[in-house]
Design goal:
alpha/beta, Metallo-beta-lactamase, Chain A, seven-stranded mixed sheet, 8 helices, about 25% helix, about 30% strand, globular
């Protein structure tokens, strides 16, 4: 299994530093058992330019996956469809063009900023898009898993959404995001399950528990993605890191919305188990 991070917030290291363009977003290219998978498309077409510089041929991708319906993971979809004429692109069945960020000011006033998939794209590219539900095997040993209500309750979802100002518009009304448009991409490797969840809005520790429920008896080897900790207090990050350590995930690759300071705390608690992602990073399992 080989993973190449096509786009992340951080610049690449070494000679490629001036070639590869970072941005607030995430996209990864994965080779697994002879198949090629694209996870997310970043916030623009920059992921495709980086792919070319990294000698990744997007036309050869067999399957595309959108982790969740936010712009910083979906805005490059159109560029991917231009580069690749055949790969299905999987969204969670509840994904729509309805995600917002709630801004508050003067304590009493709020306004909603649209942060979702570009309006009209779900209809325009309906022929390329497939919707997944439950635990879906999209390729041999490759699965998409949605949130589990027994692990991640409605109360938990509402609290996390309110804390992060994330909402969805349903029937003309704004309500806290339930994150039912979010999904994990899971690979069954010889070392154990490898989980990818690009923003982990539900909490990476909850997501690990959800995967344990979906795959009883399976060891979880690694997790890759953003952990959405960049606005989280030090004490909360440290408590979160302790929970991850108790879950005994062997490797954690994190970046994007985790935040540099939060990563420092994660690395302090988890040691070499935690690695910082960056644009151009390559991982072999």
């Amino acid at each position: 299994m080989k993973i190449q991070v096509l786009i992340d917030n951080l610049k690449s290291a070494g000679e490629s530093c001036e070639v590869l363009q970072p941005e607030w977003g995430l996209s990864a290219f994965i080779e697994f058992n002879g198949k090629r998978i694209l996870l997310d498309t970043g916030a623009s077409a920059a992921f495709a330019a980086n792919a070319g510089a990294m000698k990744v041929d997007l036309s050869t991708v067999d399957v595309g996956v959108l982790s969740h319906a936010h712009f910083d993971h979906s805005n490059g979809m159109e560029k991917f469809f231009e580069a690749n004429s055949h790969a299905p692109f999987y969204l969670r069945e509840s994904a729509g063009e309805n995600c917002y960020h709630t801004h508050k000011f003067l304590k009493f006033f709020t306004y909603q900023e649209y942060i979702g998939i570009r309006r009209g794209w779900l209809k325009r590219y309906a022929g390329r898009i497939k919707f997944a539900s439950g635990t879906a095997e999209i390729l041999p040993g490759v699965f998409l898993v949605g949130h589990n209500d027994f692990v991640f309750s409605a109360e938990d979802r509402a609290e996390i959404a309110a804390r992060n100002g994330l909402s969805v518009k349903v029937n003309g009304k704004y309500r806290p995001d339930s994150f039912n448009h979010e999904q994990s991409l899971v690979f069954d490797t010889p070392r154990g399950l490898f989980i990818m969840n690009s923003c982990s809005h539900g909490g990476a520790d909850n997501i690990v528990k959800e995967i344990e429920v979906a795959f009883p008896g399976k060891k979880i080897y690694a997790m890759l993605g953003g952990f959405h900790l960049y606005r989280t207090s030090d004490s909360q990050v440290r408590a979160f890191a302790e929970r991850l350590r108790e879950l005994d995930v062997q490797k954690i690759y994190t970046g994007h919305c985790t935040g540099d300071h939060a990563y420092e705390i994660l690395h302090e608690v988890l040691g070499d188990r935690a690695e910082q992602m960056y644009t151009g990073m390559e991982i072999e399992v």
